[in-house]
Amino acid sequence: MGTPTDSTGKSLTDYPRPSVAVDVAVLTVDEVLKVLVVERPDGSYALPGTFLHPGERLADAATRALRDKAGLTDVVFHQLAMLDDPERDDRGWVLSMAHSAAVPAADIPADAQLVPVTETADLAFDHADIVRFAVDDLRRRCAAEVDPGGFAGESFTVLDLRTLYEVIYDRSYPKDTFRRHLLHGLEPTGELRREGTGRPAEIYRRRAAPLPSSTAAFLLQ
Predict the structure, then answer these.
(1) What is the pLDDT of residue 198?
(2) Please, is 181 exposed, middle or buried when counting C-beta atoms within 10 Å of its C-beta (0-12, 13-18, 19+)?
(3) Using an 8 Å Cβ cutoff, are 120 and 33 in contact?
(4) N-terminal to C-terminal alpha carbon distance within the chain
(5) Spatial CA neighbour of 218 closest among 158, 186, 172
(6) What's the whole-number mean pLDDT along residues 178-203?
(7) Number of Cβ within a 10 Å radius of residue 140
């Protein structure tokens, strides 16, 4: 049996094929919202990434990039977008499947390089665009459920959560309105924490429940 061809008589190998890469924006909160970057041989900085190996799945390549380039394992990540500008990589025709991950600062290796997401304009390739996509994605996810990245830890006060969300969304929220909108996604632990000279603050954990659409409208306005 001969090689299968299409309606023009060409086989698959007759067509030029791009290289395929994966790049991962690892976001964390360290006073401000930051992203993990790695230094390239030419001294520039980029997101952890790698080329897809023959027979490899995209998720496996992303796992390998995080392990080998960033020292991260057991990271939950997801796909963001396929970047397909033919001019995006000066080394040749390269498609990139962009991924995003939210990792608590305590789980980031001590020697990792973190930069504020507002200072990524000089990243190699189109990685500044990937960071922007990742930040937008994180904000949408935080509007759908309470702290899906676990930045605040297993338990926290409403003040802890509001402080976190003000970093992620880069804005301030009225404390009473914030509490009312986020309370649906919180479960009280029955414990209290004294903060300053005021009355003790109630400690909560995340509930496995989606936030109402009104909360998204409030956070994203």
Answers:
(1) 72
(2) buried
(3) no
(4) 61
(5) 172
(6) 89
(7) 12
pLDDT tens figures, 95-108: 999 999 999 999 99
What lies within 8 Å, CB to CB, of 99 at 6+ separation is 22, 23, 24, 25, 62, 77, 78, 79, 80
Task: Copy the structure tokens of residue 43.
Answer: 């001294």
Residue partners of 214: CB distance under 8 A and separation at least 6: 181
Residue 116 pairs with which residues in a beta bridge?
34
Measured from the Cβ of residue 87, the count of other Cβ atoms closer than 10 Å reads 7
Contact criterion met (CB below 8 Å) for 101 and 75? yes
- The amino acid occupying position 121 is A
- Strand 19-30 to 94-102 pairing: parallel
Beta-ladder partners of 113: 37
Tokens coding 106: 């305590």
Element containing residue 22 per DSSP (H, E): strand 19-30
pLDDT tens string 145-184:
999 999 999 999 999 999 999 999 999 999 999 999 999 9
* Nearby residues of 171 by Cβ (< 8 Å), 6 or more positions away: none
